[in-house]
Amino acid sequence: AVMAHELGHLKCDHGVWLTFANILMLGAYWFTGLGGFIAQSLEENLFHWFREAELTCDRAALLVDQDPKVVISVLMKLAGGCPSMADQLNVDAFLEQACSYDRASSSPVGWYIKNAQTRQLSHPLPVLRAREIDEWSKSQDYTSLLRRAIQMN
């Protein structure tokens, strides 16, 4: 799952786009006044793109592994579960944490706090990545991609 995730970055040319975005951002900082505002806006959008790119690569891992529980267990380990405790990790409990997080951030104040906490993160919170994988694994898009791959083989 980890290798498939990283290969997803390569397949999607994330490194190329990241380099281009960084050059744009550095260029914006050279301009005084409005340049700082533009650079800050670019930086905020770049962090958003980072987080979306991670979700894309999590989907790549699921396409390769085809078992959402395996991908989610990797995300759990990233959240702090050590390999020696792998047999004690509970995917369903982890997904319930995501639901609790969603409920807590559904109010306007909760939404604001969530944005303030995650705006400068390059990766989405592991629990939210797990929820996204769980939801996507049940989607028609995922099923269609798997069917298409089977037909190609």
UniProtKB/TrEMBL annotation:
It comes from the Eukaryota. Residues 1-136 form the Peptidase M48 domain. Binds 1 zinc ion per subunit. GO terms for biological process: proteolysis. CDD domains: M48_Ste24p_like. Keywords: Hydrolase, Membrane, Metal-binding, Metalloprotease, Protease, Transmembrane, Transmembrane helix, Zinc. Its cofactor is Zn(2+). The chain crosses the membrane at residues 16-39. One of its GO terms (molecular function) is metal ion binding. Belongs to the peptidase M48 family. This is Peptidase M48 domain-containing protein. It comes from Cephalotus follicularis (Albany pitcher plant).
